[in-house]
User: Fold Molybdopterin oxidoreductase family protein from Rhizobium daejeonense.
Amino acid sequence: MGLLALSGLEYTKDMNIASPIRKTGHTVCPHDCPSACALNVDVEPDGRIGRVRGAPDNTYTAGVICAKVARYAERLYHPDRLMTPKRRKGARGAGDWQEVSWEAALDEIADAFVKAEVAHGSEAIWPYFYAGTMGQVQRDSIERLRHAKRYSGFMGTICTNMAWTGYVMGTGALRGPDPREMAKSDCVVIWGTNAVATQVNVMTHATRARKERGAKIVVIDIYDNPTMKQADLGLIVRPGTDAALACALMHVAFRDGYADREYMAKYADDPAGLEAHLASRTPEWAAAITGLSVEEIETLARLVGTTKKTFFRLGYGFARQRNGSAAMHAALSVATVLGLWQYEGAGAFHNNGDIFRLNKSELMGTGYMDPSIRMLDQSQIGRVLTGDAEALRHGGPVTALLIQNTNPMNVAPEQRLVKQGFLRDDLFVAVHEQFMTETAEVADIVLPATMFVEHDDIYRAGGQSHVLLGPKLVEPPETVRTNLFVIEELAKRLGVSNYPGFCLSEEEHIDRLLKASGQAGYEELKAGRWIDCQPDFREAHFLDGFGHPDGKFRFRPDWATGKSPNKPPENVGNLGPVAALPALPDHVDLIEVADAEHPFRLATSPARNFLNSTFAETKTSVEKEGRPEVMVNTGDAERLSIAAGDVVRIGNGRGEIRIHARVTDAVKPGVLVAEGLWPNKAHIDGEGINVLTGADCVAPHGGAAFHDNKVWLLKDGE
Assistant:
């Protein structure tokens, strides 16, 4: 065996011969998910990756990852992966391309940007990106180019605004109890997230608590999804009514003596005002709004009221409504009324963004940011590209785009406007992508991008507590380039490569970022693989005070001027109907309430085998999801003469689509759920679900209310 070790071979029992060693690489899942799972990746002797699995020694990932990432080799070696730069030859979107060199493609992009700036000023160029990779270097370097060139700014509103704002309005900080404490809970309330499908590690720790402690798992959501099926107590609420449930839970807490008055006297701003306000928010009141029974509400109120080790795991889904910030704040307030923050395995957690304290000023070029440059709303790209004056901040047109890490022709709301904008003859579009997405299909120049195992990057995990290194494990195809390469090459051509932060490698960026943040450098992180940034118990549980100046939790949020991670810049100000947000936790009908013309409420929930528009290109994911469908309640289907598999039409003032019906009791009457962000082309008429979603700004700081749509439903042909 010593000879085998010296020769670099390992013993293979099946063949009884020596074979080349398979190495294990350590990296991080790069996708837009709070878990940021630590991964172990088999690297085969031929330089290709094999099995992908969760790192068992990472205390949050705990060896468990989702199935779609476990089969990542299918995506990495997909035959349709982009491999060479392409220039559009024919009409936009016609699919007529010619291959070009990297030099020619980058020259053409730079030339188009210079022409756009000469004609309309620097704000005519809009670098547009998001979270297709959560790697700090590959995602955020585009901001450095944007600041250096004074291009239009990017407000990333599509995902987190309502949830983060509602949480921080209460706590004053975007952090909370260690999410691993779920395993030490006696009751885990999973509110507004289908964790089985989208955050599997939440279930890892919750089910451990059930197995080891007999903990109860409560799930609150709008339909009977895979997470609901794991619940000991499942509550299906009408979309947009979560705050009403939260208010009723707090009403019962005050009524039945579960409220921790001593705790609130020390840690909260106005418990007496809250109690008086909630006097009329009875379970009967909430039942009429939420569709729950009084018994269901009373049962949950009693469970959480008598179980001090109750951990509220608050997701994003229920905040993707026009009253989403208020809903998050109300749900969060339950933990404060009950005094749960005092106990290990208890409190409320949403995101750990504040604990990492990464100094990205050099990486993002914030030192030369001009605050007078306009900021354009990611969610309103359709309005921006079709010349809406308010969306353009009453400035000139956008005539050139550089797009990385996102697919707005599929994921953005108001898809008909988005398509209309992208098909403008006077718009230049450069897309850096891994596949020919629907956005790449309407570009002038398409550049092939690396995937996460093919480059170096650093990650932070919103849903847990680690900063993690994702080193390059395998060589990319010779003709494929990183996001950083594209930004650096454009900077050279556009005359800003001498600005601070340019001309650095990924490794140098990571090293400098870490050291600027008070951490050890790249080599130390490479050796340790991750840094656990979780604060100690007192800080995590706010036992020395919440994040507001007076240390008090805010039952009375300052929606207009309060703290928020996603607050728009001063030259934009607050967005949406801020004055309509409640002074104390409450249900507000800012949602698109169903009416006689639009009797249904539609939510566009995530699918288990897709992640936004990613993985919709892989064969296994598509086979497992089947086809685009909308869930229709059995009673509604019978009334409308809709049978399983029928083609139906769904519509509202934004447009209409045709889609197959899935008749089921998983949704309540009057509620429709379309799971999965399928490509538009996968739908019957080439138009997908985001034709029906709106881009109007959600109070107080903008955002897209993807799960908040009033619609009509008809059987096709009627």
Observations:
- The first strand starts at residue 9 and ends at 12.
- Residues 600-715 form a domain with the Barwin-like endoglucanases fold (CATH 2.40.40.20).
- The longest helix spans residues 102-120.
